[in-house]
Amino acid sequence: MADTYTQCYMHLVFTPKKRDALIQMTWKNDLEKYITGIVQHYEHKMLAIGSMPDHVHLLIGYNVNQLIPKLMEQIKTSSNEWIKNKKLSKFKFEWQKGYGAFTYSRSQLDGVVKYILNQEEHHRKKTFREEYLELLKEYDIPFKKEYLFDFF
User: Which residue, 74, 87, 84, is CA-closest to 37?
Assistant: First the structure.
C-alpha cells in the first residue's frame, strides 16, 4: 500500500487591526512562543517567526491536512484571547481580518528564514506597506487596494 508524502513551506503574514503598532517589545517573544505552540499543536513545523509592532511573519513546514484559513483562525483567535487574558495591551487588541500566504521551495528556505528573523533591520529601509505590495507583485497576485490591510 502506497503512502502519501508532502513537503510544503508557507510564509504567513498578518497584522493587528488597523495596523496599529500594538505588539510591544516587552512581550513580543512571549507572543512568538505562544503562536509557535499553536502552530505545533496543529502539527505544522515552525521554521521562523518574526514580529514587529504592527505585523507578524511566520514560515512553517505546512501540514496539508489542515486548511490555511482554519490555521489562521486558530492562531488569531487563540493569541488574541491570550493577549487579552494577560492584559498585555493597554489598548483594545484585535487581529485584522485577512492575511498573506505565500509558498516557497526548499531551496529558498534559508533566505526566507533570514528575512523573517531580520525584520527590524529590514524595516529600517522599507515600510511594511512597501514590503507587502512587493510580495503581492512578486507572486503576481491580483488585489484591490480597498481590500488590503489598513495602512496608516
Answer: 74
Strand blocks (E) in the chain:
9-14, 45-52, 55-61, 100-104
Cβ contact 35:1 at 8 Å: no
pLDDT along the chain (152 residues), means of 10: 85 88 94 98 97 95 96 98 94 92 96 92 82 84 74 52
- C-alpha 49/C-alpha 124 separation (Å) is 18
Domain boundaries, the chain: 9-147
Give the CATH superfamily of 9-147: Transposase IS200-like (3.30.70.1290)
* Number of other CB atoms surrounding residue 127 within 10 Å: 11
The length of the chain, given as a count of residues: 152
